Amino acid sequence: MYEFNGKAAIVTGAASGIGRAVALHYARHGAKVVVSDVNDAGGAETVEMIRAAGGVAEYFRADVSRPADNERLVNFALEKFGRLDFACNNAGIGGEQNPTGAYSIEAWDKVIAINLSGVFYGMRFEIPAMLKTGGGSIVNIASILGQVAFAGAPAYVAAKHGVVGLTRNAAVEYGKQGIRVNAIGPAFIHTPMISALDENPEIRNMLIGLHPIGRLGEPDEVAELVMWLSSDKASFVTGAYYPVDGGYLAQ
């Protein structure tokens, strides 16, 4: 059990999947949580799940690709809870599937705006808020594709590689000021983003076969690592990239 009582967290993309699991775990350990997403119904459901379990949460709609939305999100957390200790920048999309030479400009711009710029915009406003109370922990959700390629996903791969680099840079800049910044690289996790594969057993089995552990991951398995990285138990850990990948990158 981590001691997050009196702490406050922001989780983006928290209407479902990994983000929802992270928000629920923060609350379970005592943190007050701002649940953020563009899916209002899903975000409200996450808040209700937290409150039903005795936790404290508020929903705030924010499109992470918009700098002003990120600023408003952080200000909302400060207004509601008076501080910001943890941030999990998780919001992301899969994007178009096409090789680089055929990838649409519109799809490229959208994926980069959400998956990479969205993480920068988040940290741009989270960091000053954390500095006001002596520090904090930021966990950015990258991907195994922040380390390796995946044919047909040039924008996603580029964005997630960028998230890892951005994480390391911020860690170097703010380590002495009490802010730790780390990245997590999930492999294929059973979330709504890939739930359509349940109707296509052939592709689903192919993806499972990419993981030496013999299955897809679960959102809670990612959330557990977010909790550890957020906690004082990881007090000497910053600028790191941790895969949660069932052995994917070991091959």
Descriptors:
alpha/beta, Rossmann fold, 43% helix, 7 strands, 251 residues, 7 helices
Tell me what the structure shows:
By secondary structure, this protein is an alpha/beta fold. The protein has a single domain, classed as Rossmann fold. It has 7 helices and 7 strands. The chain has a 7-stranded parallel sheet with strand order 3-2-1-4-5-6-7, sandwiched between helices. The mean pLDDT is 97.
Report how far apart the termini are.
Answer: 33 Å
What is the alpha-carbon Rg in Å? 17 Å
Number of domains: 1
CATH fold naming: Rossmann fold
How large a portion of the residues is in β-strands, by DSSP E? 15-25%
The CATH class, by name, is Alpha Beta
Largest sheet: spatial strand order? 3-2-1-4-5-6-7
Structure classification: alpha/beta
> In terms of quaternary structure, what is this?
single chain
Q: Topology, please?
A:
Blueprint: E1 8-12, H1 17-28, E2 32-37, H2 40-52, E3 57-61, H3 67-81, E4 86-89, H4 105-131, E5 136-141, H5 154-174, E6 179-186, H6 201-209, H7 219-230, E7 241-244
Parallel strand pairs: 1-2, 1-4, 2-3, 4-5, 5-6, 6-7
